[in-house]
Each structure stands twice: as C-alpha cells, then as structure tokens.
Design brief:
8-stranded mixed beta sheet; Rossmann fold; 625 residues; 16 strands
Length: 625
C-alpha cells in the first residue's frame, strides 16, 4: 500500500536526522586544502553498532579500512555497501545507521572509509575526487573477494550513502564495470557492478554548468577537481570551477554520475528533504531535489527504474531507503536495464535502424555499429557515412547517434563504437575507426553500399577522429586491429565539427601539453608531449595532410573556448597548401556545440537546420557524383 504523505515526511525526517549520512559540512581546512562550499544538513551522531570485523584494511592508506557486520545465515547473504558523506573532506564509517535492522532482515553490511580529497591533493592525485571514488570501487572489489569467507552473495550488493557518499554510490552504479579479468591481482578481477542503489540527497552531477542551470545559486563541487577560488580576482570556488569547465570536461565525463548514467544502470532510489524547484535558487543548493528530478528524467528516458522521494512527491512506493534496499536485495532479480530500455531511436517511417551490429573484435571485445538506412533500398549501391561520436575520448557512446536524417536522403549510415581512452590509449581509437571502414567496405555488397563512396562525420573528439581518418587513411600500420587486413580504410569525404587537429605546442601555443593543461589528452596519448611526442604528432591530423587526403567540410563555432577556431584554421591552411578542396563554415554566436553557449544568447548563424543542409550538400557533391 502506498504510504501517506504525513508518514513519508516522518520517514524522511528520521532518515535525514539519523546516521544514514554524515553532513557535508567541511571541517576547517588547512591553507592548502580546497574547502567545499556547502550548506549543512542534519548532523549525524555516531552510535556505533559492534562490528563483526572492524577496521579491515582494503588498501595501504590509513583511511582505506572498512567495518563488516555479518548477518547470520546458512546461505550466502545479500550485502549493503555503505559510503559515508562529508563532502569527501571529512566524515567516517561510524555514521552508518540501521545496522541492526539490516542484519535482522538477513542482509550483511559493510561501511567504508576512504581517502579525503585533501589527502589526495597532498599525494598528487588528480583530480582529487579520483581518490575517494576509486577507493570505493576498490573496497567493493575487496568485499567481493571475501564472498566465500564472509558468506556473502556477491551478486546481491546494494550501495547507499548520503550527499557525497550518495554521489559516490551513483558513480559506482553508472560506471562501466572496473573488473580487469586479465589482472594478476585477484581483487582487481572482481566486478564493481551493483544490484541496486538507495541514497539520500545525492549530487547527481559534477558538471558546474548543469548545476547552474538546474539551481542558479549552486556552489558545490569545485573542490572535487582541485579548485579553491581566487580572492585576488574575486572568484569563489564555484566561479573558478565554472570558468574552467571546458578544460576539465574529460574529468566530468569520467566522474560525474549524470554523465555516466546509461541503460544498464541498476534500480535507483533517491530521497531529498525538500521539494524541487528547477531553475530557482534553493536554501540548500548542495542537497536540492533538483538533482534528483534531472537524474530521474534521464534514467526514465533510458528505461531505468528510478524512484524519487521528497515531501509531496508522486508515485512513492517505498517508505525509505531501508525498505527499498530490503525489498530489492531479498526479492527476485531486477529486469536488466538494457532489456527495459526504451529504443535509442525513433526513426521516421522511411528509415530502418539496425542496432548493435558487430563490426569487429579487438582484444576479445566486440565493437558495434548502429545502422540507419533507407527502408526502401535504391536501385544502385548507396553512398555511406560513418558517424564517430564525441566525449573527450573518455566518454560518449555510439548509441542513439546514427544520423537518420541522412538515411532519409539515400545514405547508408552507421554510428561507430570505439575503445575509449580508459580502455586503451592511442592509437586504439583510430584503429577502431579504420576497422569500421574496412568492415563496411568488405560488406559493401551485403549492405548495398558503394565501396568507393564512403564518408565520415564527427563532432569534438569525433571530429578529431574523422579528421584522422581523412589524413591517416593510407597508414597501413593502423590497419592491424580486428581483421579485414588488406582492405582499404580510406574515406572519400570528411565533415569535421569542432575537432582539434594539431596537438603539438605550435598548434596549442596558449593551451599547454601537460596533465595540468589537458588531462584528457594526456590520458588519451599515454603521457605529456615531451614523454609521448610521437603519439601527440601522430594524432595531429593537420600534420599528415597529403595529396591523397579527401575533401573536407569543417564547421566550427567562433566562440568555441574548448577547441579554439584557430585549430580549424590550421587544418584549412594545411588542406589548401596540399590542393585539397575544403570549406570552413564559421558558426557565429556558437560555442563548442555549434549552438549558443547560454540561453538568451543570439542564435547560431548558420542555425542547426542550415548546418544540416550544408552537410548534406557537401556529401551529395562528394559521394553522389
């Protein structure tokens, strides 16, 4: 039976005033420590319940310890994995509450400590939030490695916590499995996947722009990435965080739960102390239900179960986190999110979509394309366009991005999956893209494609990769992954949207080439420029233009602060010098996304519809001639 409104309020009050999570009010920091700007929530009073095993080390640092509370059972028990709050700057596992009730329900409990961001900074960990998040993952793997000894069902593990602990729990839930099956370390071979997650007042995004849009007076999160503010310039910690957003987009893609959330997420439950008010200042912007509303919106769009609770919330089915956790851990297996997920595409009637077609296997991993093509095939072979997704080489997905609008105009199109920088360093990404070209050319007859008329397009990191497809097509050393060796991997036309093309110091005179300058590039290329000069130069498409390079259409926002338009201008100069046809469309009033950066800014010129028309006209000229 659905709980009454008054009962829900009582439950919420109990949860928020109990030991479910520690307040994220930062302790007084040292001069070197970044102080998270937060508003206090109900403080927790630790009342420890005797642990079966206390302060069990899962790492070498003094904070890498956990407490284990064992439920008595003849069979392996489910487990609650608790991560305390405290802004990642303070707090302790002793704030775990409700242990006795979980044990009575036959659920064992683990509560962990982790390194604070101040300790991460002192040790040189960048960004600082990497330490507490990766500690949580390692602790979870350690617990799974103890499954037999501790009588745990390693499949049925739920995560819970409040505020920063809640954010950490969601990060675990949404991140791809961090198990390394080939590792010599048996703990590292364990999974980091979760059965379900129930959290209180989570920060669901670590993207300052999203925070600002959802809650204008947002002030949290900069410390997670090492920002402390600049009093001399009158910048608060959050101001500095927002100002430097473009530089840390790869970090946001890796550590922000919202950015990672996908259709394979487990069931999610979130509670907040007050109702949401999107777009309005909040009394407590750090723990506002606006975070929950936006995450629930995304998860439901992906077909993932997500229950959101706040005073007056609709569709409340569970009285609190404990009810949700007990029901999920003791109940039947949840439907896989992938099975529940809504279709990634809603194609027009004249377009057919084929999802997750395997185009190759690299190091035991299958790579996929999503295909969009005319439902009524033309009489002759079709030209083809491969779309390469963006995401800072560290994130993003091929799902949902097959350009159905090109399929309506007689093109076979495919959105390509490639290994991200967290999976493999350069040149894995371009090797996978070239493999997709070879696969398509080898299967041209099967898919009714003209093997001599293959183009590509991509935005941002995808723009970089298609530019490399255009200039490195003849490089046979990049054709050894995944099969179809001996088949040509060159393309006949390239549309580059806001892609970087010159990573050398000459191409980045004001941006730098070390970790502090662009962590995403350093991660992609395996080190800084001085250390990995050959990789940085090989990945710089503008350095490899030749007489065999195909025609280019480049679209770039004049106000792009992430990839300056000077990058496009360098590519244009290189192409013209080699006699290659090239057109540069400078999009006025547009940032990196080829759209205005802020609501209320002047419209992009040309607008998105005109941009599509220019792309279609370019491909028609190059691939239908």
């Amino acid at each position: 039976m659905r709980p009454t409104y008054s009962l829900r309020l009582i439950v919420l009050a109990c949860l928020l005033g109990s030991r479910v999570f520690a307040a994220d009010t930062p302790s007084t920091p040292s001069a070197e420590t970044a102080k998270p700007a937060v508003t206090p929530i109900a403080k927790a009073t630790p009342v420890p319940y005797p642990a079966t095993l206390a302060n069990v080390p899962y790492g070498s640092h003094e904070r890498q310890v956990l407490d284990f509370y064992k439920a008595q059972s003849d069979k392996p028990t489910p487990l609650l994995f608790f991560i305390h709050g405290g802004g990642w700057t303070h707090g302790d596992k002793a704030t775990m509450g409700g242990v006795k009730a979980y044990l009575a329900a036959g659920i064992s409990v683990v509560a962990i400590n982790y390194r604070y961001t101040s300790q991460a900074q002192a040790a040189g960990v960048t960004p600082p939030v990497k330490a507490p998040l990766e500690d949580a993952a390692r602790a979870l793997q350690f617990v799974r490695s103890k499954a037999a000894e501790w009588n745990i069902d390693k499949e049925r593990i739920a995560a819970s916590g409040g505020s920063a602990g809640a954010c950490s729990s969601l990060w675990l839930a949404f991140h791809k499995d961090m198990a390394d099956p080939k590792s010599a370390d048996p703990i590292a071979r364990e999974s980091t996947r979760l059965w379900c997650v129930a959290v209180s007042a989570p920060q669901t995004t670590l993207d300052p722009q999203q925070m600002k849009e959802w809650t204008p007076n947002s002030k949290y999160g900069g410390h997670a990435f090492g920002f402390t503010g600049d009093k001399a310039k009158g910048l608060s910690q959050f101001d500095e965080f927002l100002q430097n957003r473009e530089k840390i987009l790869p970090w946001i893609a890796e550590y922000s739960p919202y950015a990672l959330a996908g259709a394979d997420a487990p069931p999610i439950y979130m509670t907040f102390p007050k109702p949401p008010a999107l777009g309005q200042d909040q009394d407590d912007p750090t723990h506002t239900a606006n975070f929950g509303v936006k995450l629930q919106e995304k998860l439901r769009g992906l077909g993932v179960e997500c229950e959101l609770v706040y005073p007056g919330a609709p569709d409340v089915m569970h009285r609190g986190t404990q009810d949700f956790i007990v029901e999920k851990l003791k109940g039947p297996a949840p439907k896989s999110a992938a099975a529940q997920a809504k279709p990634a595409y809603h194609p027009p009637a004249d377009v057919e979509v084929l999802e997750d077609v395997v185009f190759g296997t690299v190091d035991g991993r299958e790579l996929h394309v999503d295909i969009a093509r005319p439902r009524q095939l033309p009489a002759g072979p079709m030209p083809a366009v491969l779309l390469i997704h963006g995401g800072g080489w560290a994130g993003g997905t091929h799902k949902g991005y097959a350009p159905t609008w090109l399929a309506q105009h007689g093109y076979f199109t495919a959105s390509v999956e490639y290994r991200l920088s967290g999976d493999a360093p350069w040149p894995a990404q371009i090797e996978d893209c070239k493999l997709a070209v070879r696969w398509l050319r080898a299967n041209a007859e099967k898919y009714h494609v003209n093997p001599h008329r293959i183009g590509c397009m991509g935005h941002s990191a995808g723009g970089h990769l298609v530019a490399c497809l255009g200039t490195l097509g003849a490089d046979k050393s990049l054709d050894n992954a995944g099969g179809y060796q001996g088949i040509d991997s060159r393309v006949q036309a390239v549309v580059d949207e806001a892609g970087p093309v010159d990573f050398t110091p000459a191409g980045r005179p004001t941006l730098g080439t070390e970790m502090k300058d662009h962590p995403g590039l350093v991660k992609l290329l395996g080190g800084g420029f001085a250390e990995k000069t050959d990789a940085w130069r090989q990945a710089s498409a503008a350095l490899h233009v030749s007489a065999d390079t195909p025609p280019f259409l480049i679209l770039h926002g004049e106000n792009d602060h992430l990839v300056p338009i000077s990058q496009a201008e360098r590519m244009v100069a290189a192409l013209k010098s080699a006699g290659i046809p090239v057109e540069l469309i400078r999009v006025k009033n547009a940032g990196h996304g080829l759209r205005p950066d802020k609501p209320g800014d002047p419209a992009a010129d040309p607008d998105p519809e005109a941009q599509h028309a220019a792309i279609l006209a370019f491909f028609d000229r190059q691939l239908k001639k």
